[in-house]
Specification:
Elements: H1 2-16, E1 19-24, H2 38-49, E2 55-60, H3 63-68, H4 80-103, E3 109-114, H5 116-120, H6 122-137, E4 141-146, H7 160-170, E5 175-180, E6 200-201, H8 225-237, E7 242-246, H9 250-254, E8 261-263, H10 274-279, E9 285-289, H11 291-298, E10 309-314, E11 321-325, E12 331-336, H12 352-359, E13 373-375
Parallel strand pairs: 1-2, 1-5, 2-4, 3-4, 5-7, 6-8, 9-11
Antiparallel strand pairs: 7-8, 9-10, 11-12, 12-13
Helix pairs in contact: 2-4, 7-8
Amino acid sequence: MAGAAAAAGARQEVADARRIVVKVGSSSLTTAAGGLDADRVDALVDVLAKHQDREIVLVSSGAIAAGLAPLGLDRRPRDLARQQAAASVGQGLLVARYTASFARYGRRVGQVLLTSDDTSRRAHYRNAYRTLDQLLAMGAVPIVNENDTVATDEIRFGDNDRLAALVAHLVRADLLVLLSDVDGLYDGDPSRPGTSRIAEVHGPQDLEGVSIGSAGKAGVGTGGMVTKVEAARIAAGAGIPVVLTSAVHASEALAGGPTGTHFLRTGRRTADRLLWLAHASTPRGALVLDDGAVRAVVERHSSLLPAGIAAVEGEFSAGDPVELRDGTGHPVARGLVNFDAREIPRLIGRSTRDLARELGPAYEREVVHRDDLVLLHH
Protein backbone atom coordinates (compact mmCIF):
# COMPACT_ATOMS: atom_id res chain seq x y z
CA MET A 1 0.00 0.00 0.00
CA ALA A 2 2.84 2.36 0.88
CA GLY A 3 4.41 1.67 -2.52
CA ALA A 4 1.16 2.57 -4.29
CA ALA A 5 0.89 5.80 -2.30
CA ALA A 6 4.48 6.71 -3.15
CA ALA A 7 3.82 6.01 -6.83
CA ALA A 8 0.71 8.19 -6.76
CA GLY A 9 2.68 10.97 -5.07
CA ALA A 10 5.43 10.75 -7.67
CA ARG A 11 2.90 10.96 -10.52
CA GLN A 12 1.23 13.92 -8.81
CA GLU A 13 4.61 15.65 -8.81
CA VAL A 14 4.67 15.18 -12.59
CA ALA A 15 1.14 16.56 -12.99
CA ASP A 16 2.01 19.59 -10.82
CA ALA A 17 5.23 20.48 -12.69
CA ARG A 18 5.11 24.06 -13.96
CA ARG A 19 8.34 24.34 -15.96
CA ILE A 20 8.96 21.33 -18.18
CA VAL A 21 11.62 20.32 -20.67
CA VAL A 22 10.29 17.98 -23.37
CA LYS A 23 12.76 16.19 -25.63
CA VAL A 24 11.63 14.57 -28.86
CA GLY A 25 13.79 12.34 -31.05
CA SER A 26 14.25 12.32 -34.82
CA SER A 27 12.36 9.06 -35.22
CA SER A 28 9.23 10.66 -33.74
CA LEU A 29 9.24 13.57 -36.21
CA THR A 30 10.39 12.18 -39.54
CA THR A 31 9.29 9.75 -42.21
CA ALA A 32 11.29 6.61 -42.92
CA ALA A 33 12.58 8.36 -46.07
CA GLY A 34 14.18 11.07 -43.94
CA GLY A 35 11.90 14.09 -44.37
CA LEU A 36 9.91 15.91 -41.72
CA ASP A 37 6.47 14.40 -41.13
CA ALA A 38 4.16 17.42 -40.77
CA ASP A 39 1.39 15.31 -39.22
CA ARG A 40 3.71 14.01 -36.50
CA VAL A 41 4.97 17.52 -35.72
CA ASP A 42 1.38 18.81 -35.55
CA ALA A 43 0.34 15.93 -33.28
CA LEU A 44 3.13 16.77 -30.81
CA VAL A 45 2.35 20.50 -30.92
CA ASP A 46 -1.36 19.74 -30.36
CA VAL A 47 -0.39 18.12 -27.06
CA LEU A 48 2.10 20.77 -25.93
CA ALA A 49 -0.08 23.76 -26.87
CA LYS A 50 -2.89 22.54 -24.59
CA HIS A 51 -0.69 23.29 -21.57
CA GLN A 52 -1.05 27.09 -21.65
CA ASP A 53 -0.53 27.30 -17.88
CA ARG A 54 2.87 25.58 -18.03
CA GLU A 55 6.24 26.76 -19.32
CA ILE A 56 7.57 24.28 -21.88
CA VAL A 57 11.04 24.13 -23.39
CA LEU A 58 11.22 21.78 -26.38
CA VAL A 59 14.54 20.08 -27.11
CA SER A 60 14.04 18.78 -30.63
CA SER A 61 16.18 16.50 -32.73
CA GLY A 62 15.44 16.16 -36.40
CA ALA A 63 17.56 18.84 -38.09
CA ILE A 64 19.94 16.42 -39.81
CA ALA A 65 17.12 14.01 -40.67
CA ALA A 66 15.03 16.85 -42.10
CA GLY A 67 17.91 17.94 -44.30
CA LEU A 68 18.55 14.55 -45.91
CA ALA A 69 15.82 14.53 -48.59
CA PRO A 70 16.29 18.17 -49.71
CA LEU A 71 20.02 17.47 -50.24
CA GLY A 72 19.36 14.23 -52.09
CA LEU A 73 20.85 12.05 -49.35
CA ASP A 74 19.22 8.66 -48.82
CA ARG A 75 20.72 8.08 -45.37
CA ARG A 76 22.36 9.96 -42.51
CA PRO A 77 25.95 10.79 -43.61
CA ARG A 78 28.81 9.51 -41.47
CA ASP A 79 31.23 12.39 -42.03
CA LEU A 80 30.90 15.53 -39.89
CA ALA A 81 30.98 18.03 -42.80
CA ARG A 82 27.97 16.51 -44.58
CA GLN A 83 26.14 16.08 -41.26
CA GLN A 84 26.66 19.80 -40.64
CA ALA A 85 25.43 20.64 -44.16
CA ALA A 86 22.29 18.53 -43.63
CA ALA A 87 21.76 20.16 -40.22
CA SER A 88 22.11 23.63 -41.76
CA VAL A 89 19.35 22.91 -44.30
CA GLY A 90 17.22 20.87 -41.92
CA GLN A 91 17.31 23.21 -38.90
CA GLY A 92 15.56 25.96 -40.87
CA LEU A 93 12.91 23.52 -42.08
CA LEU A 94 12.44 22.15 -38.55
CA VAL A 95 11.92 25.55 -36.93
CA ALA A 96 9.69 26.73 -39.80
CA ARG A 97 7.51 23.66 -39.25
CA TYR A 98 7.28 24.29 -35.49
CA THR A 99 6.61 28.01 -36.09
CA ALA A 100 3.68 27.23 -38.39
CA SER A 101 2.35 24.49 -36.13
CA PHE A 102 2.41 26.53 -32.90
CA ALA A 103 0.95 29.54 -34.78
CA ARG A 104 -2.32 27.58 -35.05
CA TYR A 105 -2.60 28.19 -31.29
CA GLY A 106 -1.31 31.78 -31.35
CA ARG A 107 1.99 30.68 -29.79
CA ARG A 108 5.43 31.97 -30.82
CA VAL A 109 8.59 29.90 -30.87
CA GLY A 110 12.23 30.93 -30.44
CA GLN A 111 15.23 29.01 -31.74
CA VAL A 112 18.10 28.36 -29.31
CA LEU A 113 21.16 26.50 -30.64
CA LEU A 114 23.77 25.39 -28.10
CA THR A 115 27.20 23.79 -28.06
CA SER A 116 28.72 22.34 -24.91
CA ASP A 117 31.29 25.12 -25.08
CA ASP A 118 28.48 27.65 -24.57
CA THR A 119 27.45 26.14 -21.31
CA SER A 120 30.52 25.07 -19.37
CA ARG A 121 31.96 28.61 -19.40
CA ARG A 122 30.48 30.85 -16.73
CA ALA A 123 29.45 33.90 -18.81
CA HIS A 124 28.02 31.78 -21.63
CA TYR A 125 26.07 29.68 -19.15
CA ARG A 126 24.46 32.78 -17.63
CA ASN A 127 23.60 34.12 -21.09
CA ALA A 128 21.97 30.82 -22.11
CA TYR A 129 19.88 30.82 -18.92
CA ARG A 130 18.82 34.44 -19.36
CA THR A 131 17.77 33.88 -22.99
CA LEU A 132 15.68 30.81 -22.20
CA ASP A 133 14.15 32.40 -19.10
CA GLN A 134 13.21 35.53 -21.04
CA LEU A 135 11.62 33.56 -23.88
CA LEU A 136 9.48 31.69 -21.34
CA ALA A 137 8.57 34.95 -19.55
CA MET A 138 7.36 36.37 -22.88
CA GLY A 139 5.17 33.35 -23.56
CA ALA A 140 7.32 31.86 -26.31
CA VAL A 141 8.27 28.19 -26.66
CA PRO A 142 12.06 27.80 -26.90
CA ILE A 143 13.05 25.18 -29.50
CA VAL A 144 16.49 23.97 -28.42
CA ASN A 145 18.90 21.89 -30.47
CA GLU A 146 22.59 21.25 -30.57
CA ASN A 147 24.30 23.69 -32.92
CA ASP A 148 25.21 20.92 -35.36
CA THR A 149 26.41 23.31 -38.06
CA VAL A 150 29.40 24.46 -35.98
CA ALA A 151 29.82 21.76 -33.34
CA THR A 152 33.04 19.81 -33.79
CA ASP A 153 33.72 16.49 -32.09
CA GLU A 154 35.38 18.41 -29.24
CA ILE A 155 32.35 20.56 -28.45
CA ARG A 156 29.50 18.15 -29.15
CA PHE A 157 26.99 16.98 -26.58
CA GLY A 158 26.82 13.86 -28.72
CA ASP A 159 23.11 13.31 -28.27
CA ASN A 160 20.07 15.43 -27.53
CA ASP A 161 19.01 13.25 -24.60
CA ARG A 162 21.99 14.45 -22.58
CA LEU A 163 21.47 17.99 -23.89
CA ALA A 164 17.86 17.85 -22.66
CA ALA A 165 18.94 16.73 -19.17
CA LEU A 166 21.42 19.60 -18.98
CA VAL A 167 18.89 22.13 -20.32
CA ALA A 168 16.41 20.93 -17.68
CA HIS A 169 19.07 21.68 -15.08
CA LEU A 170 19.94 25.02 -16.71
CA VAL A 171 16.35 26.35 -16.70
CA ARG A 172 15.62 24.83 -13.25
CA ALA A 173 12.83 22.67 -14.65
CA ASP A 174 10.38 20.74 -12.48
CA LEU A 175 10.23 17.83 -14.93
CA LEU A 176 12.01 16.28 -17.93
CA VAL A 177 9.97 14.27 -20.45
CA LEU A 178 11.95 12.14 -22.93
CA LEU A 179 9.86 11.12 -25.94
CA SER A 180 10.98 8.47 -28.42
CA ASP A 181 9.55 5.58 -30.43
CA VAL A 182 9.52 3.24 -27.40
CA ASP A 183 6.91 3.55 -24.64
CA GLY A 184 9.35 3.12 -21.77
CA LEU A 185 12.31 1.17 -20.43
CA TYR A 186 11.90 -2.62 -20.54
CA ASP A 187 13.72 -5.33 -18.59
CA GLY A 188 14.84 -6.84 -21.92
CA ASP A 189 14.28 -6.50 -25.64
CA PRO A 190 10.70 -5.13 -25.89
CA SER A 191 10.12 -7.00 -29.16
CA ARG A 192 10.53 -10.34 -27.39
CA PRO A 193 7.73 -12.00 -25.41
CA GLY A 194 8.08 -12.16 -21.64
CA THR A 195 9.65 -8.72 -21.18
CA SER A 196 7.87 -6.07 -19.17
CA ARG A 197 8.01 -2.31 -18.84
CA ILE A 198 9.78 -0.91 -15.78
CA ALA A 199 7.27 1.55 -14.30
CA GLU A 200 9.58 3.28 -11.81
CA VAL A 201 13.29 3.67 -11.25
CA HIS A 202 14.27 4.82 -7.76
CA GLY A 203 18.02 4.67 -8.39
CA PRO A 204 20.80 2.75 -10.17
CA GLN A 205 20.06 -0.36 -8.12
CA ASP A 206 16.74 -0.75 -9.98
CA LEU A 207 18.60 -1.14 -13.26
CA GLU A 208 21.09 -3.80 -12.16
CA GLY A 209 20.90 -6.73 -14.55
CA VAL A 210 18.75 -4.84 -17.05
CA SER A 211 20.05 -5.10 -20.62
CA ILE A 212 19.74 -1.69 -22.26
CA GLY A 213 19.87 -1.65 -26.06
CA SER A 214 21.28 1.08 -28.29
CA ALA A 215 20.35 2.58 -31.69
CA GLY A 216 16.85 3.62 -32.63
CA LYS A 217 15.04 1.36 -35.03
CA ALA A 218 14.23 4.16 -37.48
CA GLY A 219 17.90 4.70 -38.29
CA VAL A 220 17.78 8.52 -38.33
CA GLY A 221 18.71 9.30 -34.72
CA THR A 222 21.99 9.10 -32.82
CA GLY A 223 20.60 8.02 -29.48
CA GLY A 224 19.13 4.83 -28.16
CA MET A 225 17.96 3.62 -24.79
CA VAL A 226 21.49 3.90 -23.39
CA THR A 227 21.58 7.66 -23.91
CA LYS A 228 18.07 8.09 -22.52
CA VAL A 229 18.85 6.21 -19.33
CA GLU A 230 22.08 8.19 -18.93
CA ALA A 231 20.16 11.45 -19.45
CA ALA A 232 17.56 10.35 -16.90
CA ARG A 233 20.34 9.55 -14.43
CA ILE A 234 21.89 13.01 -14.87
CA ALA A 235 18.56 14.82 -14.43
CA ALA A 236 17.36 12.69 -11.50
CA GLY A 237 20.73 13.22 -9.83
CA ALA A 238 20.20 16.98 -10.19
CA GLY A 239 16.80 16.78 -8.47
CA ILE A 240 14.60 16.66 -11.59
CA PRO A 241 12.13 13.77 -12.07
CA VAL A 242 12.02 12.20 -15.54
CA VAL A 243 9.34 10.43 -17.55
CA LEU A 244 10.53 8.31 -20.49
CA THR A 245 7.83 7.27 -22.94
CA SER A 246 6.81 7.35 -26.61
CA ALA A 247 5.65 10.47 -28.44
CA VAL A 248 2.16 9.02 -28.87
CA HIS A 249 1.80 8.95 -25.07
CA ALA A 250 3.01 12.53 -24.55
CA SER A 251 -0.38 13.80 -23.36
CA GLU A 252 -0.70 11.07 -20.73
CA ALA A 253 2.89 11.61 -19.61
CA LEU A 254 2.38 15.36 -19.05
CA ALA A 255 -0.83 14.65 -17.12
CA GLY A 256 1.00 12.36 -14.71
CA GLY A 257 -0.69 9.23 -16.06
CA PRO A 258 0.71 5.72 -15.62
CA THR A 259 2.66 5.64 -18.86
CA GLY A 260 6.32 5.06 -19.60
CA THR A 261 9.10 4.79 -17.04
CA HIS A 262 9.28 7.31 -14.22
CA PHE A 263 12.75 8.08 -12.85
CA LEU A 264 12.42 9.54 -9.38
CA ARG A 265 14.76 12.20 -8.07
CA THR A 266 17.93 10.82 -6.54
CA GLY A 267 19.80 14.07 -5.75
CA ARG A 268 19.27 17.64 -4.69
CA ARG A 269 18.47 20.50 -7.05
CA THR A 270 21.41 22.83 -7.65
CA ALA A 271 21.67 26.02 -9.68
CA ASP A 272 25.32 25.87 -10.64
CA ARG A 273 26.88 25.01 -13.97
CA LEU A 274 29.29 22.39 -12.64
CA LEU A 275 26.91 19.68 -13.86
CA TRP A 276 27.68 20.92 -17.38
CA LEU A 277 31.39 20.84 -16.69
CA ALA A 278 31.11 17.22 -15.54
CA HIS A 279 28.79 15.93 -18.27
CA ALA A 280 29.06 18.24 -21.29
CA SER A 281 32.68 19.28 -21.57
CA THR A 282 35.47 17.45 -23.35
CA PRO A 283 38.90 17.95 -21.73
CA ARG A 284 41.46 19.55 -24.07
CA GLY A 285 44.39 18.39 -21.96
CA ALA A 286 45.42 17.26 -18.50
CA LEU A 287 47.30 18.41 -15.43
CA VAL A 288 49.03 15.74 -13.34
CA LEU A 289 48.92 16.58 -9.62
CA ASP A 290 51.24 15.57 -6.81
CA ASP A 291 49.74 13.70 -3.85
CA GLY A 292 49.35 16.82 -1.72
CA ALA A 293 47.45 18.65 -4.46
CA VAL A 294 45.15 15.65 -5.00
CA ARG A 295 44.25 15.70 -1.30
CA ALA A 296 43.73 19.48 -1.34
CA VAL A 297 41.44 19.35 -4.38
CA VAL A 298 39.49 16.20 -3.51
CA GLU A 299 39.25 16.35 0.29
CA ARG A 300 39.45 20.08 1.05
CA HIS A 301 37.80 21.31 -2.19
CA SER A 302 40.68 23.74 -2.67
CA SER A 303 41.73 25.50 -5.86
CA LEU A 304 44.66 24.04 -7.78
CA LEU A 305 47.83 26.09 -7.34
CA PRO A 306 50.99 25.88 -9.49
CA ALA A 307 52.94 24.33 -6.60
CA GLY A 308 50.81 21.16 -6.77
CA ILE A 309 51.32 20.41 -10.47
CA ALA A 310 53.75 17.67 -11.49
CA ALA A 311 53.23 17.65 -15.28
CA VAL A 312 51.10 19.06 -18.10
CA GLU A 313 49.69 17.19 -21.13
CA GLY A 314 47.99 18.36 -24.32
CA GLU A 315 47.45 21.67 -26.09
CA PHE A 316 44.89 23.99 -24.51
CA SER A 317 44.17 27.67 -23.97
CA ALA A 318 43.11 29.62 -20.90
CA GLY A 319 39.41 28.95 -20.28
CA ASP A 320 39.44 25.42 -21.72
CA PRO A 321 38.28 22.38 -19.72
CA VAL A 322 41.13 20.14 -18.54
CA GLU A 323 41.32 16.91 -16.58
CA LEU A 324 43.12 16.81 -13.24
CA ARG A 325 44.84 13.46 -12.69
CA ASP A 326 46.65 11.82 -9.82
CA GLY A 327 50.13 10.30 -10.14
CA THR A 328 48.73 7.02 -11.52
CA GLY A 329 46.89 8.81 -14.36
CA HIS A 330 43.45 8.40 -12.76
CA PRO A 331 41.19 11.45 -13.39
CA VAL A 332 40.01 12.96 -10.10
CA ALA A 333 38.49 16.24 -11.27
CA ARG A 334 37.73 18.46 -14.23
CA GLY A 335 38.08 22.21 -14.36
CA LEU A 336 38.49 25.34 -16.46
CA VAL A 337 42.17 26.29 -16.61
CA ASN A 338 43.41 29.88 -16.20
CA PHE A 339 46.61 29.52 -18.27
CA ASP A 340 47.63 28.29 -21.72
CA ALA A 341 49.36 24.90 -21.83
CA ARG A 342 52.64 26.49 -22.98
CA GLU A 343 52.68 28.81 -19.92
CA ILE A 344 52.34 26.09 -17.31
CA PRO A 345 55.74 24.30 -17.46
CA ARG A 346 57.53 27.32 -15.97
CA LEU A 347 54.90 27.56 -13.20
CA ILE A 348 55.16 23.93 -12.07
CA GLY A 349 56.03 23.41 -8.42
CA ARG A 350 56.36 27.12 -7.62
CA SER A 351 54.46 29.30 -5.17
CA THR A 352 52.17 32.04 -6.43
CA ARG A 353 54.15 34.57 -4.35
CA ASP A 354 57.41 33.68 -6.11
CA LEU A 355 55.72 33.75 -9.51
CA ALA A 356 54.17 37.14 -8.86
CA ARG A 357 57.56 38.56 -7.79
CA GLU A 358 59.33 37.20 -10.86
CA LEU A 359 56.67 37.35 -13.60
CA GLY A 360 54.20 39.99 -12.38
CA PRO A 361 50.89 40.13 -10.49
CA ALA A 362 48.96 38.33 -13.29
CA TYR A 363 50.65 35.11 -12.16
CA GLU A 364 49.47 35.36 -8.55
CA ARG A 365 46.35 33.29 -9.27
CA GLU A 366 45.10 29.73 -9.22
CA VAL A 367 45.70 27.44 -12.19
CA VAL A 368 42.13 26.14 -11.69
CA HIS A 369 39.83 28.02 -9.31
CA ARG A 370 37.65 25.87 -7.05
CA ASP A 371 34.51 27.57 -8.45
CA ASP A 372 35.47 26.21 -11.88
CA LEU A 373 36.26 22.69 -10.67
CA VAL A 374 34.12 19.58 -10.34
CA LEU A 375 35.16 16.29 -8.75
CA LEU A 376 34.70 13.11 -10.78
CA HIS A 377 33.24 10.21 -8.84
CA HIS A 378 34.22 6.88 -10.37
